[in-house]
## 1
Amino acid sequence: MKRVFNFSAGPSMLPLPVLEKAASELVSYGDTGMSVMEMSHRTAAYEAIIGDAQKLLREIMKIPDNYKILFLQGGASTQFAAVPLNLMNGSGKADYIVSGQFSGKAYDEAKKYGDVVIAATSKPDNFTYVPKTDRSSFRPDADYVHICYNNTIFGSKFPYIPDTGDIPLVADMSSCILSEPVDVSKFGMIYAGAQKNVAPAGVTIVIIREDLMGKARPETPTMLDYKIMADNDSMYNTPPCYSIYMAKLVFEWIIELGGLDVMKQMNEKKANLLYDYLDSQSYYTAPVQKESRSVMNVTFVTGDDALDKKFASEAKKVGLDTLAGHRSVGGMRASIYNAMPYEGVEALVAFMKDFAEKYP
Ligand code: PMP
């Protein structure tokens, strides 16, 4: 069975060497005589896996010592509630930048818990860019400011880190974590569902500054309380064991390739190939303004819905899979995460040229 180039926004491609390594130890891990899937999380073997996963992530992202790394469940969507429950604990105010669908969902969820406002949004312009902000955009007594750093559906990314002064900045990095180096110290908290750049679905990474924990609102469910999770090394209950193991393998793969500087180079090379082609012709249009373009999720349209659908179905026939845009916006979306090889983007651009000639 030939593997396809899978452009899915998530779950998405995993590096082939990682899948092969997982396959090689699927039935028996090390000398344990059992699969990681079958292993108690309270064994030395599993504690080493989760401990290594944490250590490697800290190394790759250069996470400072005063930040905790948590491996949680419930997807990034559960963090939409966990963030206000844990952090909206002073003035009861939080400011949200709404630059796409997921930041809109995060905002809607947070509104259940306090005085939440939209500090800036590009909604009136169909989220075709990331709004600019400065310190005056935020209420000085807000408990935190929330952003979605990369907008998976619209294909845009923050070209800057908002300056929030002393207000903790919380970022949903689900679709861009590990795609490039980030200065973690600029954020109070970073979270990400794993199923794009990290692992199969099932684990959510939270990176949080220690001083922000331990002040959760009294109604916070135990499972959503960061301090409880941190005090129990993410094992208050059974963690998503296999996804964490897969994350560890992906972290090893990233380190072997040279870390996040190399990831950034590789990702920019792929994205440039695609954007340069998009900018060189008029058959396809890329709706996102250049400055806000995502390196991970590249969106484009022909301007004709029927043709867009044909594009995705014909591409699938030649091994270019899952190129339809999100069901809410249509068009096309090529998600080109870390595991997508350069050859996949080359094949896509060649197909785009052929398609434009075939259906002028
Ligand atoms: N935030 C972003 C940026 C996403 O891309 C997604 C999922 N595609 C989510 C949140 C929701 O993640 P989950 O399905 O893990 O809840």
## 2
Amino acid sequence: MSNRPISTDDAGIPAPSDEHSLSVGPNGPLLLQDHYLIQKMAHFNRERVPERVVHAKGGGAHGVLRITEDVSQFTKAKLFQQGKETPLFLRFSTVAGELGSADTARDPRGFAIKFYTEDGNYDIVGNNTPIFFIRDPQKFSDFIHSQKRRADNHLRDHNMQWDFWTLSPESAHQVTFLMTDRGTPASWRHMHGFGSHTFLWYNAAGEKYWIKYHFKTDQGIRNLTADQAADLAAGDPDHHIRDLYDAIKAGDHPSWTVNVQIMPFEAAADYRFNPFDLTKVWPHSDYPEIPIGTLTLNRNPGNYFAEVEQAAFEPSNLVPGIDTSPDKMLQGRLFSYPDTHRYRIGPNYNQLPINAPASPVNSYNFDGPMTVRNPQDPVYAPNSVDGPVADPARYAGSEYEVAGEIIRSASRLHAEDDDYAQPRALWENVLSGTDRAHLVANIAGHASAPEVTADMKKRVVEYWSNIHKDLGQGVSQGLGLS
Ligand code: NDP
Ligand code: HEM
């Protein structure tokens, strides 16, 4: 007998055989009493949880956040105090494809971080772009439906995508990013991450600031051309998972410089555009990026399913010193993520090791499927038997006044609440000649798919002409319309 451990069933009972089922005679029928075989087959049938409805394909790694600067005047959040090191898990993803889809598809990339802080989990669930396609959560499922598959033939459909985008002018900024070569990053290590939304920071004295997070890659930006991305999609669909895993395994730990933009609380009201509009960035000339530390990935997951597939990020995980903003998209997401985790993984998803906080949990929620935490009595609050008690004086969060009519309306209250100015600035002031040429070619290539109708092609040209006439003209030529 070797020193290898004895295989067992899931109850720890030694396995009768790794290879042979219990049969009546060597070639006879099998017996229901072979509980080892039954457990093996039944467990296999339950090996999958539903894939994420969006961001299904991804990979991730463990790491650490190190804060090098003193930002205590802006936030009392413990993870952002100078000298602090906080363990984290980061998951990257594409948005629209299913679990087996290609990593190099043109798509935004998810950049979701879970920080295991002293005050519980803090999640920043961002993308590799600082903006998004829409500004109202009402449109999110419609947007995603347009990106996924048709009801009839189960095919993705570029006509449907352009239909949604051209009828949603607020998408122009994000679609511009998406159609540049940044829509096909060379690897997850070679792209930035953004918190995208505006969040609230408050310090120990209760003073409030609006902030945005930027995670700037220390590896440098590297993108693929459309042709390179297509070749990799065919030849190595798991290219980005492989790249990250191999780099970390080889000791080449990728890192990002963590920057914030900080807006005084009072400046939001009469800023030149709505600072809570997710389709806009805050120009650096108004609010420069301030470096506060470094995020490094240094450990691969030991088990992909347990750590990556079952990771459950939620923008509603906010710790003392950090709060929400009136960004309507953020407000919608506060509901959506914990709701989908309860459905996808189960109501006790926070008890799984990858999601469990590093700090003590003294919650009055208990029981339910797959519970492993054993709370003790009392199981209710308030109680007079020394159960955990809240401390509102320390943890009630930030307070500010909001007022207004209950209405359904888009915000156009600021002088520059305009959908095209910022993508125009990107085209005019930021993109190089090569970037512009690739942008035009990528749009034309995408809108040349056989299903895109002649009428839709005209709408596509109009959409890009609204950003800049040269861009519209380039797309028109690329589509053979002029
Ligand atoms: P700046 O010139 O100060 O900033 C331009 C930004 O664009 C930098 O963050 C730069 O950082 C980034 N950038 C450079 N090349 C590209 C590219 N090919 N695709 C996307 N982003 C790129 O100007 P403003 O702050 O006034 O912004 C001008 C425009 O730049 C905005 O309208 C927006 O479209 C875009 N932008 C702005 C950001 C912001 O937070 N202000 C962030 C990202 C883009 P880097 O090269 O390191 O990515
Ligand atoms: C994943 C909803 C907007 C980034 C998801 C998931 C849902 C969802 C249901 C699947 C989560 C899971 O099963 O684990 C929404 C809704 C939005 C919205 C309703 C708008 C109202 C955004 C925006 C961003 C974003 C604006 C980025 C700024 C992500 C990321 C993931 C994700 C990164 C993957 C998280 C992971 O790696 O597990 N979203 N989303 N989403 N979303 Fe959103």
